[in-house]
Amino acid sequence: MHLNIYRWLTTLFTILLVLFLNGLLIIPGVVLPPLGKLLDPYHGVWNHHGSKDSESFEKHEKTLTESATVYYDHKLVPHIHAGNLEDLMFLQGYTEARHRLFQMEFMALAAAGELSSVIGEKGIQHDLSMRRRGMTTAAAKTVAAWENMPEYKYVQKYIDGVNAYINQLNYKDLPFECKLLNIIPEKWTAYKSALVYKQMALTLAGYSDDMEYSNLLNILGTEKFHDLYPETEQIENPVVPEDWKFDFDKIYGKPQQKTAYADKMIPKSFHENRYKGIGSNSWSVNGKKSASGAPIFCNDPHLSLSLPSIWFELHLLTKDFNAYGVSFPGFPGIMIGFNEYIAWGETNVCQDVEDLFLIEWTDQSRTAYLLDGKKTEAVLKIEKIDVKGGKTVLDTVRYTHWGPVVLLSKDKKHDIAMKWIALEEPDMAEFMVFVDAMSSKNYDDFLKSSDRFISPAQNFNFASKSGDIAIRVNGKFPVRHDQDGRFVEYGNNSEYDWQGYIPRIQNPHVVNPDRNFVVSANQRSTSRDYPYYYTGLFEHYRNRSIIDRLNARNGFTVKDMMNLQTDAYSVKASDFVPVLLNSLSKFTLSPEEIIWVDALKKWDFNYHKTSREATFFDMFMASLNEEVWDEFTPYQDSLDIILPKDWRLLELLKTQSDHPFFDHKSTLERENGHTSILKAFKSTLIKMDEWKKSGKSDQWSVYKPLNILHLTKIPALSKKGLEAHGCTDAINATGKSYGPSWRMIVHLDKEIEAYGVYPGGQSGNPFSPYYANMVGDWLDGKYHKLEWSRDITSWDKKPLAVCVFKK
Amino acid sequence: MQYAYLKNKIMTDSLKNISLIGITSLFMPLFTDWWWYIPVCFTGAFLWPVSGVKNFGIAFLMVFLIWTGYAWYLDLDAHMSVAATLGEIFGDVPPAMMYPVSGIVGGIPGGLAALSGYLWSKSRKN
Question: What is the value of pTM for the model shown?
Fold first, then answer.
C-alpha cells in the first residue's frame, strides 16, 4: 500500500520538478529562469562561448533571386554583397537577426508593453505606460497604411530575412538572454518593425514639459512665469543661420480661437520616458573650410547607451550602390551613413510634438467627455497585460478626440489625453527614407527620399562629394498659435486642435550657406523670424561650442574633426565661472576657499576624466540651483515641475542680481545674486569634503562614472563604472548612462575615407569577443577606419568569415 | 552463496545503470531536449533495480558528473566567462560553484526519476 503511494508521489514530484525546471510550471510570485533548460550543458547557456558569431557557412536560400555573399571584417561588420535591393533587404534582416535577435525581440516587447510577460511584476508600470500611450494601436495603424504602399515589398523582404534566421533556430542556438528570460522568439512581422520604429519615436520625440509648465504657470502666475522661463535666450545660433530669409507665405488651417490652458495643478505622473541626455551633434563643412578642399561630414547621436548597442554597423552593396553606416536593428536601411556620392545623418529636432489635453468626463464612469458642448463617447480598449509569475492585469485605455488618456486623476472627473505625432497614421512610405538614401547620388535625390520622413522629427544633415552641404529640419510639424503646446490645454473645444501641418517646403532648410558649414546640436531650429510658432526642449551649449570652433578657422582635417567630436570643453562652465568668481571676489574668503577659487581660475573648462575642477563646478551648480530656487522646494514632491534653465539663471546673475528669487525664503536677511553664489560656494566645499571622506577620488570620472547597461539592466551583462571625458553640455556629451552612440566622420574627397566607432560591439552575445570590444576605443576617443571598398582584397585585415547564400 | 550472488547482482545492475546513462549521454542530447536522461534514469532503475537509495545515488551522480564536467569543459573555451556571469546573475555565487550547481540541477530530477523507476519496478514484482 505504502509502496503504491510512494511510487505515485515520487513520479508526480519528478514530473512537476521537470516541468518547473523546463519553465512550464510557474509558481505564483516566483520569477526564476527555467533552470533545467538553462544550465543543461548540451543545449543551455554553457554553449555561448561566442565563436559562432564568426563562423563561415554556405547555405541555400530559395527566396534569393541571385546568390549573395556576406563578408565579415575584423570587427564583425557584415559586408553584404547582393544582386539587387530585395535580396539585400532579405540579407539585412537575416544578418541583424543573427547577431541581434534578442535586442529586436526585447525592443518589440518593450514597445508593445509586454515586458511583464518576461520579467514579471517589475514590468507592469512600464507596460501600463506603453499601452496608455497607444503604442500598439499606433503600430497596427502604421502597418495597415504600409501594406497599401508599393514599396512595402522591401519591408516584407527584410521580415522574410529575419524569419529565415528564426525558422532554423533550435533552443541551443537561442540568444543567451532569451534562455535566461525564457523567451522563444516568435515570427518577426511588420507590426514588430513598426513597434521598434515607434520605440525610436518615443525615445526621441515622446516627451514634453506641458505638465511641468502648466503647474509652474499656476504657481507663479503669467508674469513671473515668463520672466523665469523665457523661450529664447540672448545668445542664439539656430540650426538655420539667423541671416537666412524665409521668403514664403505662412499657411494656416481654419481660423482658430485662442486656446485655454488648464488652470489646475497636475499631480505627479507615471510618465517614465523623460527626456534626459538625448541629443546629438552633426555638422558638415564644405571645401572652403577643409584642408583638402572636399566636404567633411560628422555625426554623433547621443542616446541612452546600452548593450547590445543601439546601432548595428553594416555595409550594404548591390550592383547599383555601395552604402555603409549603421542601422537600427528591426528596421531596414541605413540610418546614418554614406555611399560613393553622399553622406547623411540626423540629430533630434527637439520640437514638442506631444500635446496634453485636460478631459472633462461627464461622470465617474469615464466613458464620455465634453467636447464642443456635447457629450462625446470615448472609445474604450481593454488592454490585457500578462505578468510572469503573477496575475494578469487588465487596463482600460480610453481613446478621445485628442488621443489616448495617459494620466488618470484621483477625482475621476478630469484626466489627461495625449495628442502625439507618432500616433498619426503615416501617409507616406517612411520606411523607404533610409533605404533610398543608400542609392542617392546628390542632394535632389536625398531630398526626394527624405521628404517622406514623418516622425521623430530630425535635422537631416547632408554633404556630397560634389561639394554641397545642407541641413533640413525634417518631419511633420503642427501649425500652432503662440504658446500652444507649451501647457496642458483644455480638451473641451475641438478648435484648440492642431490646425494642420506646416507644408514640407516651409520646414527650415538651408543649402550651401555663406558660412560654409551647417550645424545641428539640438538647438532651436530657427531665429525668431520663422513665421511659425514652435516650442520644445532645446539645447543651449553644444551648438555654440561647435559653431565657435568652425567659425574660428579654415583648413579642417579629419583629425581635427575627431578632436572636435571628442571635445570635453564646457561652454556653460566658461559662461558661469567668470561670473561666479567675480561675485566671490566681493567677499573675504578663507585660505581653503581661496585654493578652490584659484583652481577654478586656472581651469580650462574641460571635463577631462581626471579633472577635479569639473567635479567642483558640477557640485557648485547643483548647490547654486538649490540656493536660488528654494521657492520651488515645497512643490517638488507632489508636482512635476522643472527649474529654470541654467542660461536663464546666468542672465539673472549678470543683469539682475537683486531679483526677488535670489532671496532665500527661510532666512531673515535679504540675499542677492552675489550672496547666493557665496552660500552655494561654501555649501560646495562641505559637499566636496563629504565626498572625500567617503574614500572616493574627486576626479570627474569617479564622481560621475559612465554606465552602459544591458537592455535588461542585469549588471553582469553591463559595463559599469567607466571613466569617460565629457559632460552633458560638452560636444562629447557623456552622462550617467548616455553619450555619443555612434561617432562617424566621412571625408568626401576623390577617394572617400570614413571613420567610426560606437560604445559596444557588433555581437549581441554577451560572451562573444565582439560584444563590447569597441568600448575601450570609444572611451579613448579612437576611431576605426570603415572598410567600404567593394574589393575585399584591399582591406587592411583579412575577412573574419565568409557566408555564402546560394539561390 | 546467496549473499555473493546478491552482491554480484547489485554490482552488475549498478554497472548496467551507470553504463546506460553514460552511453546514452553520448547521443541522446543530439536528438532530444534537456530532459533526455529522465526516461533513461527511470528505465534503467525499472529494469535493474538495486535499492531506492542506490538507484537515486547512481543516477544523481552520473548526471551530476556529466553536467558538471561538460559545463566546465565548454566554459574553458569562453575563459570561464559564462560561469562568472551566471554567478553574478544568481547573486554573487563564486564562478567555480556554477558548474556543480548545474550538476545538482540536472542530477536531482535524474535521481528522482531513477527512484520512481525503482519503486514502479518493486511494486510490479510485489
Answer: 0.93
